[in-house]
Amino acid sequence: MRQEWKIKDRLLKFHHKTLIMGVLNVTPDSFSDGGSYPTVASAVERALEMERQGADIIDIGGESTRPNYAPVGVQEEIERVLPVIEELRARTSLPISIDTMKSDVARAAVNAGADIINDVWGMQRDPDMARVAGETGCGVIIGHNRECTGTVDTVFAQMYGFFETGIRRLLSRGVERDKICIDPDIGFGKTYEENLYILKHLDWLESFQLPILLGTSRKSVIGLTLDLPASERLEGTIATCVLGARQGANIVRVHDVKEVARAMKMTDAVLYQEG
């Protein structure tokens, strides 16, 4: 398991701690919190609240990635995220991640103060994304995605090939390997059964010797299991985060920072206790 992740000029360390990435969607249509932070002030205040609650990273997104989402143009996405990033950067030293599939948005966000590019298409939707990552020196999250679902028997083989392609693209653009993080992207192009299988065998991804991010917060795999709407999936989110940490996840991406941070502090105390 990798113990550090280099982002720009700093190191995020995982020694005895699962990091918390707080989700901040500045969108009107995200699946569970769309429209919750309609102004720059409300979005920044929520980010600062998550920092107080225990977030180690703030992940800002300006376009929903829920199923059947409505695509957003580059300029509109930039106009949504940049004022929030700029104001937040002026008020905290916490690492900021930009959740985007577009290289122009990523570049603008990093120039405004973001430290990490979180691409749910793993450098394979926008051909310029790897170049932007190389030129800006930021940390990079490669999320696994695909247009069609597969089978439980083949999901990891397909995921391995996808990650290898993304890693090669980044390395060819001058991105150092220690700046790369991988994310199985639970819920993206996967069946319910595949999502459960990935959660059960997440430790298979440790062979990459890269940090692993796990994002299960309020997702459909929890809703389908518990038969609950997104607003009532906290307990399921906590359960998957605890299981993920046990299977090697270094970072968990969540909406409910306070509750998950407490659960992970207890989990880490057990996982990393000496003797």
From TrEMBL:
Domain Pterin-binding span(s) in chain numbering: 18-265
Keyword Magnesium tagged: yes
Residue ranges that the Swiss-Prot or TrEMBL entry lists as coiled coil: none
A UniProt-annotated Pfam family: Pterin_bind
Record keywords, A-Z: Folate biosynthesis, Magnesium, Metal-binding, Transferase
Domain of life: Bacteria
GO terms for MF: dihydropteroate synthase activity; metal ion binding
Single GO cellular component term: cytosol
Catalysed reaction, written as an equation: (7,8-dihydropterin-6-yl)methyl diphosphate + 4-aminobenzoate = 7,8-dihydropteroate + diphosphate
The keyword Cell division is assigned to this record: no
InterPro entries documented for this protein: DHP_synth-like (IPR045031), DHP_synth_dom (IPR006390), Dihydropteroate_synth-like_sf (IPR011005), Pterin-binding_dom (IPR000489)
Pathway: Cofactor biosynthesis; tetrahydrofolate biosynthesis; 7,8-dihydrofolate from 2-amino-4-hydroxy-6-hydroxymethyl-7,8-dihydropteridine diphosphate and 4-aminobenzoate: step 1/2
EC number: 2.5.1.15
Required co-factors: Mg(2+)
A biological-process GO annotation: folic acid biosynthetic process
EC top class named in words: transferase
Function: Catalyzes the condensation of para-aminobenzoate (pABA) with 6-hydroxymethyl-7,8-dihydropterin diphosphate (DHPt-PP) to form 7,8-dihydropteroate (H2Pte), the immediate precursor of folate derivatives.
Record-linked NCBIfam families: DHPS
Annotated family: Belongs to the DHPS family.
Name of the protein in question: Dihydropteroate synthase
Source organism of this protein record: [Clostridium] leptum DSM 753
Record lineage: Bacteria, Bacillati, Bacillota, Clostridia, Eubacteriales
